[in-house]
Amino acid sequence: MLTVNETIKDLYGGRVRVRVCGICIVHDRILLVNHSLYGKETAFWVPPGGGIQFGESAEWALKREFIEETGLDIEPGALLFINEHIQPPLHAVEMFFQINAVNGIPVKGTDPELDVEKQIIADVRFLTFQEIRALPETSVHSLFSRIDALEDIFTLGNYLPGTESRL
């Protein structure tokens, strides 16, 4: 089992976090961010996104997170599904939105909540479904284990339950 790095555990562990994530597909490739949540040597590829701040709408949070993580200006679209991620010490309720428009060129961004020497964004890029499937299952968001093609993301349903943890 992978262990979350101490910085992430201290910031987000032991509480429920509400997150927004964007499904941005261009030319049969999905935009993903490689976070080193489990250490610098361990990749974890996820759609761009992050926590909603107090007083911030989900749409505004998604726009902010895309700029911070990828440098891209986006237009959020429809809510596709809600995913519940439960992997102690982390517990997140994630709202996944379709991205309707993208402006700019993706670049590796930063997480303003982390010091420069503790940044966890290792890479940002568009990947094909075949490239995602070639990665270890523990290296990609769990949504990819529920689909057989990128188009399937748009038919996942309303709610993807997490594995319940009995603490």
Placed side by side, the strands forming the largest sheet appear as: 5-1-7-6-9
Number of domains: 1
Percent helix range: 10-25%
CATH architecture: Alpha-Beta Complex
Looking at the structure, the CATH topology is Nucleoside Triphosphate Pyrophosphohydrolase
Strand-residue proportion: 35-45%
Give a quick account of the main beta sheet: strands, pairing sense, barrel closure. 5 strands, mixed
Tell me how many strands there are.
9
Compute the average pLDDT. Answer: 90
Structural class: alpha+beta
Poorly predicted runs of 5 or more residues: none
Radius of gyration, in Å, reads 15 Å
Termini separation (Å)? 17 Å
Query: What is the CATH class?
Result: Alpha Beta
CATH superfamily: Nucleoside Triphosphate Pyrophosphohydrolase
What order do the SSEs take from the amino end to the carboxyl end, as H and E? Answer: HEEEEEHEEEHE
Sum up the overall morphology in one term.
globular
How many alpha or pi helices? 3
Features:
3 helices; Nucleoside Triphosphate Pyrophosphohydrolase; five-stranded mixed sheet; four-stranded antiparallel sheet; alpha+beta; single chain; 167 residues
